[in-house]
Amino acid sequence: MAGAVSALFLLDIKGRVLVWRDYRGDVSAIQAERFFTKLIEKEGDPQSQDPVVYDNGVTYLFIQHSNVYLMTASRQNCNAASLLSFLHRVVDVFKHYFEELEEESLRDNFVVVYELLDEMMDFGYPQYTEARILSEFIKLMHIEWKLHSGLPWLSLMQFHGAAKELITRRTKWVFLDVVESVNILVNSNGQIIRSDVVGALKMRTYLSGMPECKLGLNDRLLLEAQGRTTKGKAIDLDDIKFHQCVRLARFENDRTISFIPPDGAFDLMTYRLSTQVKPLIWVEAQIERHSRSRVEIMVKARSQFKERSTATNVEIELPVSADASNPNVRTSMGSASYAPESDAIIWKIRSFPGGKEYMLRAEFTLPSVTAEEATPERKAPIRVKFEIPYFTVSGIQVRYLKIIEKSGYQALPWVRYITTAGEYELRLI
What we know:
Layout: E1 7-12, E2 17-22, H1 30-43, E3 52-55, E4 58-65, E5 68-74, H2 80-98, H3 103-108, H4 110-120, E6 121-122, E7 125-126, H5 131-134, H6 156-166, E8 173-186, E9 192-206, E10 212-217, H7 220-226, E11 238-242, H8 248-254, E12 257-259, E13 264-273, E14 281-289, E15 294-303, E16 310-319, E17 325-331, E18 335-339, E19 344-353, E20 357-365, E21 382-389, E22 398-404, E23 412-426
């Protein structure tokens, strides 16, 4: 028997992952990046037109349709002709469902895409590839109206309510992202001038009918109203704003967040914490002028959160003189480049674990002739960008997310936490 596929990836024209399905657990999402790097190298070779890429024990087979790459990754010896035929069948099935296979149709229908990938391949082995058979048990949003004479006119709200009652889905999903944005301004003496946290509970729901959802947080007032305690800390939320689907009267009475969610993406709740926040990534910069024409900058970046968390896509923008030239930059981690259009050094660190410190050194040359009465140059602040998954500054926790529907079906709730940098600036002068 031929070997099994480890994972199937759908990529956009720039190599970014749109959808991927892991079947055997022996490859990771990073394989897509390695594949695209190898693919770019192959494009420079006019003699290489084969749809197979091999790298570090992983074999990639791919085809391109419109602005989408379909690619399988495997660590076993697979039947290449069979898998390429399977990828073409995947294209045919998607075209049957979405009329055309392209990036937009995948983004708009990703839940159905995952359902199809689960049915078309099992543990890495191709299964159903006939669109007519798949259509029998995987359906797009389907509404069937029975019109009767004398049917009264419906208001817009009644119309959407009736339509949602008739929507049926094979798999029910609820995605909840708790996203917090940290805003910090630090002066040149290291004192925090302003700090706050702006948070949002972002939901995406794909449910049948009109189920009632109940959400529980570790909100201090809620826990006190219910006479409950929690192992973790309780938090105080300020400036709470809810989506219009939330029953406000019930929240004001007993702090219960109860709602009937609309279909698709929406912000269920936004909030703010005005308490002083410890900078998650601290940056110190020392500027030494060795002469009128040579300047050296030494920068230390330190992560001030627990070791079990890791910041990703860290980007530190360090301002330099507008007339600086001939940069020489060295870093202990990540990569740095001079951006003359921004008069800054851009230091990028892909992964920054908690409790770590990294350094950057840069030397520049300046014009040796300067005006004696030149006004001092106003320095821009150091700006920092980052993301920390599975982490929140406020400590907010989703204690429960209940989905109550009269037919009693089971839904799959997914909760994710992430902290990002908002207006995060450290002044030099």
